[in-house]
Amino acid sequence: MDRISPLLTDQYQLSMVYSYFMAGSHMKQSTFEMFFRTNPFKGSYAIFGGLDAFMEYLVNFTFTEEELAYVKETMPHAPPAFFEYLKSLHYSQLTISAPSQGTVVFANEPLVIVQGPLGFCQLVETTLLVLCNYATLMCTNACRMRVATDSVFTNAKKPNVDVKDAIKKVLADKVLLEFGLRRAQGPNGGLSASRYALIGGFNSTSNVLAAMQMGTIASGTMAHAYILSFTTGLEELIPEQHAMVQPLLGGKNFEWFAKRVLAWKSRLFGGEKPPLMLQLNTQQDIAKVSFSSYSGNEQELSAFTTFAFTQPKNFTALVDTYDTLNSGVPNFVIVACALLEFGIQANGIRLDSGDLAYLSKQVRLIFNKVHQVMTEQYDNLTPCSPDMHNKYDGQFLKCKVVASNDITEEVLVQLQKEGAQVDVFGIGTHLVTCKAQPALGGVYKIVEIDGQARMKMTEDISKATLPGSKDVYRLFLSSGEPYADIICKKGVNVPVAGQIVTCIHPHDELKRVMVKPAKVVKLHNVWIDHGELKYPHKIENGKVILQHPDLASTREYVLEQVYALREDQKRYLNPTPYKVSLNQDMNQMLREMALGVKTVPLIE
């Protein structure tokens, strides 16, 4: 990752740090916490993201001479000692605690805990928020879209399921592609979106630069512009392109391949009783398709043929440029049959408009009928030649249906309900812009200074902060489900598996429940421990190189946790809230501090 400048902050952070410095309080030991007050997208959970970027920011934290010169210009009356202080700031002065990247988290519990000198802790606020707010929002949005595509997350759990295998099957059965670069908030926003989409549950991205940086392969099909750029039929195109040679097609030239395409067109749709017409027109479901004769767009066929010839192992046809069912899909079938002769599997088709549920079902029905034709008549339809592959082994059943077209989480939920036959979703605008909720609303508050707990009290009790340094533990039931997260005073009365724990509502202490957890897991890891770097890393030429977990394992970690949540907590509409509670010690301190800081008016 590129270095993140300390100047990526708000001006008032430097102003406050300067005042701390001049008052001599900048070295007081303090604790700050980042958290958010409401779960995003009207849901019951979030996926924590941004730890990787925040750690990169911290381990590379230093003011360059150019940056210090700029600060001096903006603060001309500051003494030289202040700038020497800024130059001295180093991650070794801090303690950083946070969940692992991709952890399921909830509103009103501390996420990132920053401990160290007051001035330094204050200075990282804005940067921490900009790095973690969008990342968490994006991971959550991607994860919710993943959940919406597969009922395995929202149906009752089956007993004795191998969760790791189940998640791998989910990722294979429904492929999600991030297509949002052109709609992202600038280049950096596009790169961040691609990374956190994959962490949240997407399989791949169309963003080539992001794919290179992440060490993965970008995905994509073709655009309408490509198809519309062809202005002649295939027979007219052959003389222009006849000399092109494709090694993947046995060294054949374009003319040879194009003539095979035309031969398949004639065999499938020509004559008095074309085999494909006989199969398809017996299906009353395909009311809008007429296969009594070929009615496809010849220019579209030229486009598909050229694409398949130049990229035979990457042939996914965009079929809605002219007429999805009467032109695009038949033209795809024709070209796919020509590839079959070389033993090459065409990938499938992409739908970018129309009723995706209806069209996907019709396309799948067509593929199934083509499969029936190929199974029964393939040897008769293709010549037996020693240099050709003449075995049909179900390739049309393996063709994928890709859907795009302004897809939202709600659309995904509805498509699943309607039984849409979509294998791959390409999602852009509503994913990368998080259009349903453009901001997370994470905040960063001081909770302790020199060992003294601090509490912000407001008119709105829901915005009051929880005072003091604290730990968070996740309580699991014997079923393996997480039941509640409990917030405790740091190091005091830590919950233990097998022992009863009282969980108290943060805003209504009469609401409480007693839990006997089968397992207790501490939510936070310490990534920097009093200056010692615990985050995985190596040293190269004296420089710290962080070693982040790979995206695939983080993505599986995300989905395994979400799978473990109760089904009603993952509903699209009105999900059941997950319990975030206080233990008795924390509740007592909150009550005492609230009474101590609350002003009681005198009425005369």
TrEMBL record:
It comes from the Eukaryota. Residues 7-132 form the Nicotinate phosphoribosyltransferase N-terminal domain. It is an enzyme of class 6 (ligase). Keywords: Glycosyltransferase, Ligase, Phosphoprotein, Pyridine nucleotide biosynthesis, Transferase. Residues 470-589 form the Nicotinate phosphoribosyltransferase C-terminal domain. It catalyses: 5-phospho-alpha-D-ribose 1-diphosphate + nicotinate + ATP + H2O = nicotinate beta-D-ribonucleotide + ADP + phosphate + diphosphate. GO terms for cellular component: cytosol. InterPro entries: Aldolase_TIM, NAPRTase_C, NAPRTase_N, Nic_PRibTrfase-Fam, Nicotinate_pribotase-like_C. Its EC number is 6.3.4.21. The keyword Phosphoprotein applies. GO terms for biological process: NAD+ biosynthetic process via the salvage pathway. One of its GO terms (molecular function) is glycosyltransferase activity. Gene3D superfamilies: Aldolase class I, nicotinate phosphoribosyltransferase. CDD domains: NAPRTase_A. SUPFAM superfamilies: Nicotinate/Quinolinate PRTase C-terminal domain-like (SSF51690), Nicotinate/Quinolinate PRTase N-terminal domain-like (SSF54675). Pathway: Cofactor biosynthesis; NAD(+) biosynthesis; nicotinate D-ribonucleotide from nicotinate: step 1/1. It holds the Pfam family NAPRTase_C. Belongs to the NAPRTase family. This is nicotinate phosphoribosyltransferase. The lineage of its organism: Eukaryota, Metamonada, Diplomonadida, Hexamitidae, Hexamitinae.
